[in-house]
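wait is this the right file?? whatever heres the structure
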């Protein structure tokens, strides 16, 4: 059994903070325009199924990390290849999020500050947290994650008196954008919970994992729905596709107050937890793959690599937006979110049933 590090409360808060990430800034459902709320509901429901599957994989392979499960299910050779794939996938997620953070801060908050400086300062904080260990990340989640919904609720409360709901009509004028939007929600938000197979073995109680994770998922879905509805009411479905940072525009339209700093803090927290856990998963999986005693010496190296790749792969904010919503990126996530987890689930169920049969015959 792994060393005890996280309580189920910390697990739930980490789930919320990680999945929330930077979705307050870039919401993938917005590609469906006036039907974004439908795309979100579809993605949210599908996300429940995905996360239940990932939790069940962890339950069937009690106390094992993603690396150990992959080797157990696919053998040494194929298992190591699958581990290498997930290492690259988690690194890609870190790159996308660090670039998204840097672009937002450089465009909106600090336009005269070099992008490399903003990203480096952010990553230095992430390096410190990841090197401090999973227990530290869990304690930070207890303190900071409850603050994350505040900016969204402040902006949402300012539109209570608004009665114009024409932005939601007509409904389902086009079905293809809704399906693509729902797929984007799953691939960029809920499907990323597969990373938690590197975290779940370090909780102190097996009982309660499902409850805390699904509760976080339910609260996250409600918050995302508030964001989508708010943006459609305040900005409208026609203009919303022309704004890269719809949440920032909505915040600026709040009468009588300036909550831009709250939006910035919101991004720092959400993006920080997302990048920190991605960096933790990359280094931890790499350390286990190459039999390194501790993952901590690898953290700085992978952090620098993530920054370099962020500039190399995504040279501009336009390219970032194209990457975030492109169909090709959604297809890349299918092996990580669907094919390999489904194979792990099937193999784990078969092995578990064989063990039960062997116990019954003894």
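ok assuming it is, sequence goes like this
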């Amino acid at each position: 059994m792994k060393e005890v590090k996280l309580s189920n409360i910390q697990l739930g808060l980490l789930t919320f903070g990680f999945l929330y990430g930077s979705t307050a800034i870039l919401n993938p459902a917005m590609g469906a325009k006036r039907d974004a709320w439908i795309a979100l509901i579809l993605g949210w429901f599908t996300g429940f199924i995905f996360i239940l599957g990932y939790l069940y994989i962890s339950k069937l392979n009690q106390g094992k990390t993603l690396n150990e499960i992959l080797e157990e299910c696919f053998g040494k050779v194929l298992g190591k290849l699958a581990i290498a794939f997930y290492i690259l996938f988690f690194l890609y997620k870190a790159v996308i999020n660090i670039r998204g953070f840097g672009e937002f801060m450089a465009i909106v908050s600090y336009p005269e500050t070099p992008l490399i400086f903003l990203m480096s300062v952010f990553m230095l904080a992430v390096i410190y947290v990841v090197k401090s260990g999973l227990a530290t990340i869990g304690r930070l989640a207890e303190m900071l994650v409850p603050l994350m919904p505040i900016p969204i609720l402040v902006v949402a409360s300012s539109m209570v008196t608004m009665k114009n709901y024409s932005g939601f009509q007509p409904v389902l004028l086009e079905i293809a954008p809704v399906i693509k939007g729902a797929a984007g929600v799953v691939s960029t938000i809920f499907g990323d919970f597969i990373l938690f197979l590197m975290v779940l073995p370090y909780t102190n109680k097996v009982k309660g994992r499902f409850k805390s994770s699904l509760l976080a998922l339910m609260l996250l879905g409600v918050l995302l729905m508030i964001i989508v509805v708010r943006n459609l009411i305040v900005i409208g479905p026609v203009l919303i596709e022309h704004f890269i940072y719809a949440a920032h525009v909505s915040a600026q339209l709040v009468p009588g107050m300036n909550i831009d700093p709250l939006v910035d803090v919101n991004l720092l927290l959400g993006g920080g937890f997302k990048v920190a856990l991605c960096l933790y998963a990359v280094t931890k999986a790499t350390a286990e793959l190459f039999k390194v005693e501790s993952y901590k010496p690898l953290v700085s190296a992978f952090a620098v690599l993530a920054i370099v790749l962020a500039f190399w792969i995504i040279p501009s904010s336009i390219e970032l937006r194209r990457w975030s919503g492109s169909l090709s990126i959604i297809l890349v996530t299918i092996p990580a979110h669907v094919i390999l987890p489904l194979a792990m689930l099937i193999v784990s169920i078969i092995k578990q049933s064989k063990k039960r049969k062997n116990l019954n015959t003894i």
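The domain at 8-361 is CATH 1.20.1740.10 (Amino acid/polyamine transporter I). so i think its the right one actually
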